[in-house]
Amino acid sequence: MFRCIPIFKGCNRQVEYVDKRHCSLPSVPEDILRYSRSLEELLLDANHIRDLPKNFFRLQRLRKLGLSDNEIRRLPPDIQNFENLVEFDISRNDFGI
User: Fold this and answer.
1) DSSP state of 41
2) What pLDDT score does 95 carry?
3) DSSP conformational letter for 8
4) Could you please report the per-residue DSSP string of 49-75?
5) What would the mean pLDDT of 52-78 be, rounded to a whole number?
6) How far apart are the two ends of the chain, measured CA to CA in Å?
7) What does DSSP say about strands 64-66 and 87-89: parallel, antiparallel, or unpaired?
C-alpha cells in the first residue's frame, strides 16, 4: 500500500511536480508553498481540503491544479492570480448551487 511521503525539507532543487492525491490531507500542506517559483503541477485530489489559504495563490508558475474530490465550498477571488493555469479540476466538491 502506498503512503504519503512528506516533501523532503532539506531539498534545495527546483520542484515542478507534486502529487499528494489520496493522502487524507485536511488542508494544503505548507511545505508545498516553498516551491512557489518552480511548481508547475500540483495534484491534491481526493483529500479533505476545505479552504485554500491566501498564500496558496503565490504559486506563480502553476499550470495544472487538481483539487477534485475534496470538501471545498467556495473559491476565493484570488483564484484569478493563477495566470498560467491551463488545467484546473475542482469537480466533486461541496459547492452550493
Assistant:
1) E
2) 86
3) P
4) -----GGGGG-TT--EEE--SS-----
5) 95
6) 37
7) parallel
67 close to 90: Cβ distance less than 8 angstroms: yes
Q: ∠ CA(54), CA(29), CA(44), 5° rounding?
A: 95
Q: Whose CA is closest to 66, among 40, 33, 94?
A: 40
At 34, the amino acid letter reads R
Task: State residue 64 phi and psi, 5-degree precision.
Answer: -130, 130
What does the pLDDT look like over 21-62, one tens digit per residue? 999 999 999 989 889 899 999 999 999 999 999 999 999 899
Q: Quick check: helix, strand or coil at residue 26? A: coil
Element (H, E) at 17: strand 17-19
Return the pLDDT at 33. 87
Q: Which residue has the cell 511536480?
A: 17
Can you give the length of the chain in residues? Answer: 97
